[in-house]
Amino acid sequence: MTKKSSTSKTSAQAPSAVIRQHAEQEYAEELAAIREEDNFPKPENWLTSPKMTLLYLLGGKTPKGKEISPKYVGDPRLMEMAIATLATDRALLLYGLPGTAKSWVSEHLAAAVSGDSTLLIQGTAGTDESALRYSWNYAQLIANGPSPEALVESPTMRGMRAGKVVRVEELTRVGSDVQDALITILSEKTLPIPELSSEVQAQKGFNIIATANNRDRGVNELSSALARRFNTVVLPPPATLEDEVTIVRRRVEQLGRAFEYPVETPAADELRRIVTIFRELRAGVTLDGKTKIKQPSGTLSTAEAISVVNNGLACAGYFGSGKLTAADLATSLVGAIVKDPAADAVAWREYRQTIMKNREDWKDLFNACKEIDE
Amino acid sequence: MTVSIFGIRHHGAGCSRALVSALEEFNPDLILVEGPPEGNDVVKYVAAKEMRPPVALIVYPEADPKRAAIYPFADFSPEWVALRYAFARNIPAQFVDLPVANRYAIEDVIEAKNANRSQENASENNQAEEQVEIAEQIENDQEDLELVESIREDPLGTLARMAGETDPQRWEERVIEQATRPGAIFPIFLDAMTELRRAMSDAECWQKIETNNDDESPENEREENALGLDLVALAKLAQTVARASGGNVEDLEPLREAAMRRSLRAAIKSGAQRIAVVCGAWHAPALELDSTDPKRRALIPKKSDDDALLAKLPKVKTSATWIPWTNSRLDRRTGYGAGVEAPAWLAEIWRVSEEAARLDKICGKSTSERDRARTYDDAATTFLARAARFLRDDKLQAAAANVVDSARFANSLAAIRMRATPNLDDLRDAAVVVLCNGEQTIYRSIQQRLEVGGELGAIPQDAPATPLAKNIEAERKRLRIKREELSRNLDLDLREEAGREKSKFFRRMAFINAPWAIPREDERRAQGDFRETWTLKWNPEYDVVIVDASKYGATLLEAASNMAAAELIKAESLASVMALVERALPAELNDEAMALIFRRLRDDVAVSSDVNDALTALPALARALRYGSTRGRADSRLATIFDALFERVLLRLHEVCVNLTDDLAERVVEQLAKLVDAVMTLEDDERLAQLLDTYERVALETLTSKFIVGALARTLYDRKRWSDERLAEKLAFFIGRATPPLEIASWLQGFLYGAGQTVLWLDALWRVFDLWLANLEEEVFIELLPLLRRAFESFSDTERRALGQTVANLYAARSHSDVADAGSPWDDPNARALIPILEFILSGKSLDVDHKE
């Protein structure tokens, strides 16, 4: 059960008791404003037209001038493709490295299109069919035999009945046999319930947004029959340094508000340093392309950069002086980079000694990081 | 008498469609098309049945055919469409422009002038900085002119880019789609071009507008016409042009337009009543001889001015003809680029719309807006279906259902992006997302085939040929080689002149990238050096390749030699230079090229100090030397280089033989074997002796890898440098020095590498080896077993049995031999017990385990 936050009319939402609100609540105002001015054609059961959904995701101004914050910073064509997919009744598979905003985009798409991002199935190795189709209230089942009352609906079923978007996270972690339960749902848009000799037919507006990352071991690749039913949109890591800094800054600000850190927001330069470190280690080469660097084994995604900064802020606020310093960032920075103590430590030390040491304005960060090792 | 000017975008498929409708409406009795007038000699071939685009018109100066000007045409090029329209209705059509003959002559003059300017500059003892400045100025002027030319080449594209459209092709299609009737776009283009030209020649006017840009006055709004011009960008452009035209650069454009006007005036005088002029949009305003707007008419030079400009122009003698061209080369013209993206896609749109128009005519309807949209749909679906087919060709999955889904997706995308029909971007995205599972790399692997296509044009047989093609054809006839597309084998005897000539011909063709014949490798040496076997197969693509090669020469010899010289510049290692030498020598390229190649080889040899390089290069050099001698043309330059490398190897061979793992050692051993073979083929006893000396020296060094030592020992034995006893002595020496068993096993492996029967009867050696084996401790022995097994791998069953026999007889023969084993007690029963083990190792026979301790 989610607690609704105290509604406020200003764009800086008043903090609620919940750690993180759903997209449709946090951005309720934006969505309301968009829907008010939405005169574009909408597919049936969509709350927002595709064109305005695009505006919601990419940010900009509504025709009447209201500012909409960007949710996705990157190539607009990817968002166009994602929305067009949903509009054509094809399922959407958001694919990419960890930390590239797949779940984020999935949540916001669901919020904009159906007004509800909670029809969520978390895929794990232990997910079984009942999560995707239905399960039973065994007491009822045994007592009174199979009946609609004994049925426990899955989010998929609820989405199909209501004509809403269903989200499946980490589809490739789900076992292949369970994944294939989606095939019939996607091609015939019905969920048969053999035990009751009935079925649930999807209302217009039903669709599935799945996310998958391609980096983990133990990934169950989609069977070709299932893959064929998805449109795959690959979300790449941020293309430029500036994009990534923007993303990090936005998110840090939002989270900072939510957590109410007693600290001022970090300067752009601090963020740029952290993001530079992440980008260089990720690519295995310095930003100017001249020096090659050993790459650590971790993914070093944008999401991790965000959490490094957040950690730093928390340290600074609660244990420090109220202003973000290098010492606050150092611990979580090293923690994010060195995931495998043997190989990564070497790579990190090399990077520190050869690259960080020689940068003029990085002395404080360098010293703080060095201290951690000693 | 009316003149209608149709300013088009080169290779614009949208313009072509509009042009057809416009021409039908206008019903001309004479069509003038922008193009080199030399083409008028061969324009009649346009109507030929065999003529099939993509083709190109080629105009070349007869004195220097390398310098050809190429004008490509595709099915959907407006100029081509206009020409075909004319021929279909028996209307006269001509090319109008400044003749290439004049253009090239003038360019020569300009180049000479620029060269003079730099020379004067240099000789005037100017300060170094000033010289650099002036040189930079010349370069900047040139660059400015190129920028201006690129604008003139594609002014509509420039406008499109200024309107924020990233792709001019799409913009063009959109503008044409939105026009009420297709023919209506040409007056719009004409107006736009007039404005653009006026702007670019009047920098001040635009500077004023630039400063007033913030005023959103109605006058400014009007200036930003339906095509969405960006005034600020235009102003910047204007400045660039002003700088370029005011500089010291000679601009050919006024001459070209004067020439076009002259042809137009002549056409008017000839009595034609309705003249259609199809030219690049940029030139349209310059040809409006009878404009009703006095302001515009004032901008056009008078007849007398034009005549004065064109009087007494220098010229060179030129010829023109048609050549087949390919889709992949459609964006290349000599001169300034008119880029065509995705020709296969454009060709598809054109084909579909032509088909639709044809059917409509049959049914007596006219193409409506909706029908036009439908043709786009057809083209889009075909595009996606072809994508699926290419994916399946590559053994990837692409279901038919997915093609349907991708087509719907493309439409959806187009709708979101505010387009009526999907364009190439939408189709690409749809293909990637639906057919390729989101992977850009998969799409890229089919992109070339899908968007560009491998289409090859065709020209009529009786069209005149380019000089290189003529030369090759003449050679072909002389050598009596048939042009067939089926494979055929051909045996050549190099002792006869005919054979030698054919061999040279094939090798030279290979140099110009038209490998008509490929040497057959299988029965190489067995037939001796004077036989060569080739497999012949003609590929129609070679016609285009020959055209490309025309840049390098007018005869096969010249072209091959110059291309070899170009390859030489790109060659990076000694090995690649050697490879080039091996190809160049039998092709007998011209002296210039050979001198360059030898000089490079000599320099590389002098500079490079790598022994490995030398080892790789020597066999190739030996082959080349031998080739020279069998054909009676020994080359002293080669011999010098060979000697230099040989010396290097002799001095430093041991460097590459130390500290090697077994697989690296194997490679070195192969090189050493090749080297000995190479020296043998040269039949030079002295060199062979020197080489063997070196081998011996290296074999005796302590640091040399034992694998190599073994192999060298074998070579020395094979070449009779070492006798049986000597061999056995060496092995005993090793063993005596307490060399680790692993190394001995390595030695044996090297020794037996490449097998051979001669070692089977080396009694002395086997005795030593046998003794050593017998004295090994058990664990060590077991450790060594796999290595020893491997050493004998290359022996066949018969050979193994023979060896086993030898071993069995080792001890029987012992009583007759005088070999005294160095102080090791001979224990007969133990010795006998060893025999089965040896047999097991050597012949793979299973072991009768009989534990007699």
Task: Give a quick rundown of the structure.
The complex is a heterodimer of chains A (374) and B (853). With 374 residues, chain A is an alpha/beta fold.
Description:
The complex is a heterodimer of chains A (374) and B (853). Chain A is an alpha/beta fold. Chain A folds into 2 domains: 2-235, Rossmann fold (3-Layer(aba) Sandwich); 241-373. Chain A is built from 17 helices and 11 strands. In chain A, the strands form 4 sheets. In chain A, strands 4-7-10-3-11 form a 5-stranded parallel sheet. Chain A has a two-stranded antiparallel ribbon with strand order 1-2. In chain A, strands 5-6 form a two-stranded antiparallel ribbon. In chain A, α3 (50-58) packs across α5. The relative contact order of chain A is 0.10. Mean pLDDT of chain A is 87; it is low at 1-13. By secondary structure, chain B is an alpha/beta fold. Chain B has 6 domains: 2-104 and 254-329, no CATH class; 105-246, no CATH class; 375-452; 467-563, no CATH class; 608-719; 723-853. Chain B has 35 helices and 10 strands. In chain B, strands 1-6-2-5 form a 4-stranded parallel sheet, sandwiched between helices. In chain B, strands 4-3-7 form a 3-stranded antiparallel sheet. In chain B, strands 8-10-9 form a 3-stranded antiparallel sheet, covered by helices on one side. The longest helix of chain B is centred in the N-terminal third of the chain and has 26 residues, at 128-153. Chain B is elongated. The relative contact order of chain B is 0.06. The interface between A and B is medium-sized, with 21 and 19 residues.
